[in-house]
Amino acid sequence: MTTTSPPPSPLRSRRRAGIAALSIGALIWSALAGAASPAQAAGTVPTDGLIAQYAFSQTSGSTVPNTATGSGRVGDATVRNGTDALWNGDSLTFIGGAKSSTTANWVELPASILSGKNSATITTEVAIDASMKSAFNFLWNIGNNSNGSYYFTSVRDSPRTAITTSSAGGEANARSSQALDANRWYSLTSVIDGDADTISFYVDGVLVSTGRTTLSPASITDQSLNAIGRSPWPDPFFQGKVSTFRVYDRALQASEVKAVSDTDAALHASSFQSSVQTILNSVNPLTIEVEKPRLPDYNGAVTWSSTDPNLVVGSDGRLATAAVPRAGEPDKTGTVTATVQVRGVSATKTVSFRLKAPAASSDTWGNPIVQTIYTADPAPLVVGDTMYVYTGHDEDNSNTYVMNDWHVYSSTDMVNWTDRGSPLSVSTFAWARSDAWASQTIERNGKFYWYVTVTEAATGQRAIGVAVGDTPVGPFRDAIGKPLISRSEIDPTVFIDDDGQAYLYQGNPNLWWVKLNEDMISLGSTPEQIPLTHEGFGTKASDPTKTAYQEGPWVYKRNGMYYNVFAASCCSEYIAYSTSPTPTGPWTFRGTIMPSQGRSFTNHPGIVDFKGKSYFFYHNGALPGGSGYGRSVSIEEFTYNADGTIPTINMTTAGVSQIAPFDPYTRQEAETISWESGVEVSPTTGGGLHVSSIDNGDYIRVRGADFGSGASSFTARVGTTGVGGTIEVRLGSRTGTLVGTCTVPAGTAGSTQWVDIDCPVAGATGKTDVFFVFRGGSGELFTFDSWQFAAPPALTVSATAETRCVAGKVVLVPQVGNGESVAIAADVTSSFGTKKFESVAAGKTVSAAFSTRRGSIDAGTVTVQASVTKDGKTLTRSVDAAYAAKSCG
Fold first, then answer.
1. Which residues are in the CBM6 domain (predicted)?
2. Angle at 841 between CA 837 and CA 843, to 5 degrees
3. pLDDT tens digits for 815-826?
4. What is the pLDDT of residues 447-457, one digit of tens each?
């Protein structure tokens, strides 16, 4: 995974979030463009620790004076390759250009500006040119002319700040969740807090991301070429405008960052009115089909309010509760108020909404395969009859990579996935401190080795660790008590060749390989870097000097060919691959497998064969609230081309087909889910998992349950901690045929004290999807541990059929035997007549005689339909008895 973008919504709002489409209505300006709010008043810029303040407000010259007055102030800045025509009176225009340009202007800052400093804050008032949204660039850089050690901010894709002492692979990032609009003024602030070991990024005075790092400005020991608009890489020069640039030798507090942003906003207040109007014009009517929608925020500029009880907006102005009609009920309509705010200028507009009954579309979805949490970086593993997938876990409410543990899911049919919990976390590795990033698990000699990416506590750099367990789901333990590889590399992938030699590959942005010893926990060779040539790994479209390889390798062997599938050309990434005749190259680039899709700027591949089919695993941001920091694992089936190449694969919501029957007559874990809405999965005291957070209207779908001739009852194991409710058993969809309803009483027993409830079902036959729909009052209803259907008990009944000759005619004689302890009723049906036995005594046999009135008959069958009421339940059974052809003369 790469370090790159949007923040997920809270868990329940994510899973219930809907796509809201937003209408033109009454427009009211609440702040005139030219009117500065009190927060924008001059004189609020903090001066403590201010060592450089450059106001690009002059109209000529090449020297930009430092107007800071503190004792630690540094010298003036110098415009390189500048002309007076580039001064605007309130800003300096940067014209951009290739790194080789001798006319592209940039600003040189004083050398050693932050040398020896433990903390720092750098804030810039900037408007970017549209070209910067896709081109690599450094808005500013603290460092030198080499690309090994630097501290910077970039505005490509979505803005970020980072620091490194080991080039790109060691960058500790804090990145915004949204891209910047071109030609709009922004305040971008980077804060490094050496005491807290954090790097933070603010946009317009609002904290958007915080990352962990033990690096500080003092770590950049060579600060001989500090600059605005110039990169130490071969990136083009920055293009846009800069209005102010400030440097502090301390970490500003959030309120201080906001004060700087508000002050600088006043410089261009009139420009924000048009920005507000543009956003306001794009706000459309809302159409909502879910109970807990997250209303669109238009890149953070829009909040909502409502007085309509059918659509209640929460305190954050975006999460809402909708009184969505049930299937068959009419739509509900009303209005809400959208407020657009850009740096102190705001306007409101009345917007219509329509609440619709839930669409049935998600009832048929198979992707993403997990909906209870965000999952990322899938690593599939086949063990016998079961597919396991090991995933990372993007935490909710994150605006960067907050990943603390890994999860495991398993399936035997590829559509119903059992949550196996989190058997491994960062805390398993005593030497690691954070960042449960991409991983892979492999089996050897009956043990399972889980290779993971973490951040090493001692160095603050990425490292590869390895855990070992005796089963695919653990428990796992740190195998060696230290990093297997400490070189600021990420994304391990492992495979064992036909000769038994195991190989480990990893890396971003470089690609390395090393042999593993047979113990799988020690290196068998010196790590070697794979040459990233254009012939081997393609060309990056946005920078032809670089190859397409970015990260996330997945290496395997098939039919004598070695495949290296990887995430390409960040960002947004697509999936590409290369092949080789050996595990170490030379590699030949083969092209794209999966284009850049799916609302996540990263992707991560995994490919395996299972039960005669080939599967491609990946992640995207498809769940409501999903993004580059809230990803979800999905699967597609594919077929290799005849020459072994891989076809183009697109993301779908349908996913893959079921490849094995699902037995509803054996005990199933409630956390075996094909699709769900609203619920969560939680650990059970004493071990195991259960389904929790069950509210009215939530549901679980299980695909392709094979009921055969029919089920008669349903049993659920539940925890009666909540207000109680019912479990509706429906077929085909969440509003499909109701075949049974189980009542769950209210109680206070605790979710880890379980009771079994059961109820009759009727009409559950054949192969169909089952939906457990939860109904009740407000609040959590109950918890759900497991379930099982039961078929009707079989009657012990027998049937035979004989033929005889009477007066030259064939007589058919069927017999019914009752093996039950009570009398039964039996109906006998044949081609020559029927007979109804009202009562066949226990243990007795009765017979009937049907005259065929024919001298000969063909072979045929007699059917006996038996029934009895036993223990309050009606049992039935149908038995056929065959007879041979017969001739009487």
1. 666-790
2. 125
3. 999 998 999 999
4. 999 999 998 88
Which residues, in sequence order, are CB contacts of 251 under 8 Å at separation 6+?
Answer: 119, 120, 121, 191, 192, 193, 194, 195, 196
Please, which pLDDT band fits residue 15 given cuts at 50, 70 and 90? very low
Q: Print burial letters for 578-607: b (CB count within 10 Å at least 16), e (below 16).
A: bbbeebebebebbebbbebbbbbbbbbbbb
Among 856, 284, 375, 878, CA closest to 600: 375
- CB contact at 8 A, 363 and 618: no
* Segment 651-677, tens digit of pLDDT: 999 999 999 999 999 999 999 999 998
- Dihedral over alpha carbons 600, 606, 611, 614 (to 10 degrees): 80
Place of tokens 């609230």: 625
- Residues annotated as part of the active site: 377, 535
In the predicted model, what is the mean pLDDT of residues 829-836?
Answer: 94
Taking a C-beta distance cutoff of 8 angstroms, is the pair 495, 433 a contact? no
Bridge partners, 449 (sequence order): 442, 468
> Over the stretch 557-585, which tens digit does the pLDDT of each residue have?
999 999 999 999 887 899 999 999 999 99
The secondary structure of residue 259, as a DSSP letter, is: H
Phi, psi at 369, each rounded to 5°: -80, -15
Roughly how many angstroms between the first and final C-alpha of the chain, as a whole number?
A: 86
Q: Is 474 helix (H, G, I), strand (E, B) or coil?
A: coil
Q: Tokens for 252?
A: 């500003």
Own/partner contacts of 475-484, CB < 8 Å, gap of 24 or more, are: 475/423, 476/423, 476/424, 476/428, 476/448, 476/450, 477/428, 478/428, 478/429, 478/430, 479/449, 479/521, 480/521, 480/522, 481/430, 481/431, 482/431, 483/431, 483/456, 484/451, 484/521, 484/522, 484/523
Cα 712 to Cα 656: distance, rounded to the nearest angstrom? 31
What is the four-CA torsion angle of 645, 646, 647, 651, rounded to 10 degrees?
-170
Collapsed DSSP state (helix, strand, coil) of residue 198 = strand
Q: Which helix (H) or strand (E) holds 609?
A: strand 606-610
Distances in Å between the alpha carbon of 596 and those of 154, 348, 393, 544? 22, 35, 21, 18
- Span 497-540, pLDDT tens digits: 999 999 999 999 899 999 999 999 999 999 999 999 999 999 98
Closest CA to 379 of 324, 325, 459, 437: 437
Peptide bond into 792 cis (omega under 30): no
What span, in angstroms and rounded, lies between the C-alpha atoms of 59 and 75? 20
CB 545 within 8 A of CB 537: no
Q: Which residue type, as a one-letter code, is found at position 752?
A: T
Q: What is the mean pLDDT of residues 721-738?
A: 93
Asked whether the beta carbons of 478 and 465 are under 8 A apart, the reply is: yes
In terms of DSSP H, where are the helices of 333-395?
none
Residue 347 makes CB contacts below 8 A (sequence gap 6+) with 27, 28, 29, 30, 31, 276, 277, 280, 339, 340
259 CB contacts (<8 Å, ≥6 apart)?
A: 39, 44, 45, 46, 205
Residue 636 to residue 432: CA distance in whole angstroms:
34
358 CB contacts (<8 Å, ≥6 apart)?
289, 290, 324, 327, 734, 735
Find out whether 392 and 370 touch, Cβ atoms under 8 Å: no
Rounded CA-CA distance 875/866 in Å is 8
The dihedral formed by the CA atoms of 848, 851, 855 and 861, expressed in degrees to the nearest 10: -50
Mean pLDDT for the chain overall: 90
Q: Which domains does the chain have, with CATH numbers?
A: 11-31+274-359 (no CATH), 47-251 (2.60.120.200), 365-638 (2.115.10.20), 668-790 (2.60.120.260), 797-887 (2.60.40)
